[in-house]
Structures are given as C-alpha cells and as structure tokens.
Amino acid sequence: MYSTKIDEVIQNFDFKGDLRSYDKYGSGHINDTYLVRFTGGNYILQRINHEIFKVPEQLQENIALVTEFIGDKIEAQGGDRYRQTLTLVKTISGENFYRDSLGLYWRAYIFIDDAVSYNLVKNPDDFYQSALAFGNFQYQLSDFPVEKLHYTIPKFHHTPTRFDSFIKAVEADKKDRVKLVQDEINFILERKAFTNLLWDYHEEGKLPLRVTHNDTKLNNVLIDARTGEGLCVVDLDTVMPGFTLDDFGDSIRFGATTGAEDERDLSKVNFDLELYSVYVKGYLEGCQGTLTDLEIELFPEGAKMMTLECGIRFLMDYLEGDTYFKIAYDDHNLVRARTQFKLVADMEENWDAMKDVVNEYL
C-alpha cells in the first residue's frame, strides 16, 4: 500500500536521465526499498518508516552530516566518495527527503554498483572485511562532534530501558502469549543486573559516547564484488551517539554464529569463537587506535549485551503482537529471540576464552 505514490516520489527527486524501471529491493525489516533505474544511473529509493523513526527530518539530518563528513575525508585521501560511502540524492527543491501527498517520507541514494552483501558469514575473510569496514567507520567519525547528532530512536541501545519496557509488556500480556514463553522470560530475568553494566560505566565517566552505527549486521556492509574487500557501510538510520561496544557487540551477535538469526533448530545455532577472534582483530585494525583500553577490555560484555538486548526486543515484539519487526510467520519473533538467548548462553560458556582474545590487544 505504501508504493501507491511511488511515481509521484520518483518525479520529485533529482535523478539523472529518463526512468527505465523500478522494483522492490533487499530484505530489510523496517523500511520499504526500491531499486530505481534511470538512463543516467541507478538509485536506491526508500520509504522511511516514520512509525518507528518519529522525526524523519532529524534522521535525515544525521545521515547528511555523517555521509558528507566521511565523504570529504575519503576525497581528501584520494578515494571515491561515491563508492566508499553513501551519497544522498536531493529532491528537485534541494531537500534531503521528500514527503509525498499521503504524508509518507522518502529518501534516495546513489546506487553503488559491483557490490554485494551477505546475510550469513560465508568465510572468515568476509567477517574480517566487515570488521575492518565498521572499525574504519568508527575511525572516520572519531573526530566528528557527537553532540551534533539527534537520537533517532531515544534510548535505542539503553539496555536497562529495554529491560523495563519488556517487563511492562509481560505484565500487559496483550496477546495472551506470556504462558507460551515462561522459560524465555526467566532467562531474561536472571540477567537483570547485567543489563546495567555499560551504562553504569558511562555514568562513572569511564565509557564515552561516540558516533555509532547501532545496527552493525554483516549485511549492512557492502563488499566489493571484484576485490572482496569491505567497501561501504550502509543503513544509517540509527547513526547517533552510543557506545562503540554497541556496534562491536551487534556485529558479533549477528555474525559470530553458526546459524541464521531466525533458525528454528537451535542445535545449529552456536557461538563461533574463531569468528569472534577474527572480528576483534579486524575491528581494532579499522579503529586505528581510537578506542580506550576499557572499551577493548569490555568487548565480551558488549557482545553479550547486544545479543541479550536483541533477544529482549524480539521477545517483547512477539508479546505485543509483532508491531516493530517485519515477520514472515506467526512466531517469527519468538524464533529470533530463542536464537539470541542460545548465543548468550554459549558466550557465557566461552567467557574465559573471549576474555583471552581481547587480552592479547591490551
């Protein structure tokens, strides 16, 4: 239903050439995405989900600031800004987004050709390249004034708040599903104290806020199809102030696993210590010395925190009737939650080994 005004939308962006075609593109959970083909080049067109991102104007301001900052650095170093970072396409009136006659918000990017992304780690080098890319993203923005950025989703990775919201969802039990997930609820309750750890360090002045991506899944890095090297970080909706541990941890929970995020058979879902080690190496190389010793020391905590938090979010969405994440079947979010909790349990079993890996860099 959201594509009913797409012709109107296309006409209001400053695309080059004549329209050839457009098709649905990608598999994102949140926004609707199209590949739009013009004689002058290809573009990505996205409807911004303003039910989740309540102030799209601020979201787009964040993206414009960050991509222009990175693009200028790339250009100064002799690189290709149109290939190594996202480039927004302005509307014909010069704006970074378009609001259509239905009140829906849209944005467009120049399409990056000869690039691929992966939903699951196929080999360690792919994961290493994504680590380099996200680490480099952190490095490129290490001197960006973080206070200029808006919080596109307030307290997005504030795990204590996520825990409190989850408890309210359990108490409300809108869909009468609590009775079906008591084991999963208990799993979360047993780790309540842990959810405060990172924010306690921050309040003590020990953990800084940085510009963070906040959705560092493997499939949010474009890999150069010709060289196999990490090329460009995409999906910048959640770029805002946060902990580098959020970015590191989200990558581990998504990539250092032997199973998909929605694998029903939990025997196929295991924490992969080798991939974790590969990512630590690549991420630190990409960051180029910008992280503190405490941030590096807390990599295992970051991995566990983001995995637990994501499981909490999936389970809460299941309890509330699947209003946030797109689902393909009734218990999709429950399946997703269970994979995250399996990974948390595996991390806990491998805790000493995870610590040993990071200690090599301290």
Automatic annotation (TrEMBL):
Q: Taxonomic classification, please?
A: Bacteria, Bacillati, Bacillota, Erysipelotrichia, Erysipelotrichales
Record-annotated Aminoglycoside phosphotransferase domain positions:
25-260
The alphabetical list of record keywords is: Transferase
Q: Which organism is it from?
A: Erysipelothrix inopinata
- One MF term in the entry's GO annotations: transferase activity
Q: Which InterPro entries match?
A: Aminoglycoside_PTrfase, Kinase-like_dom_sf, Pseudomonas-type_ThrB
Q: Name one Pfam family in it.
A: APH
Q: What is this protein called?
A: Aminoglycoside phosphotransferase family protein
